[in-house]
Amino acid sequence: MKTHPSAAVRTVQVRAEPIELCQLLKFGRLAGSGGEAKALIAAGKVLLNGAVETRKRKKVMAGDKVTLGDRTLVVALG
Hints:
This protein has about 80 residues and is an alpha+beta fold. The chain has two helices and seven strands, in the order E-E-H-H-E-E-E-E-E.
């Protein structure tokens, strides 16, 4: 029997903060395009620090966690 982690967590380094949520989804490869990112956010499928976030241009800072399905991005300034 194979075990699977409940969530894949990956750190994404950004050059400057804040970054808009829709841009982060695209940059972090959780969405294939900006339009797809905006649709996912509008549909309530994206969590920011554990809470549903529906604002496409919500400012995301270092240390924030963005989750879509079983994938999570942790934002780091780099």
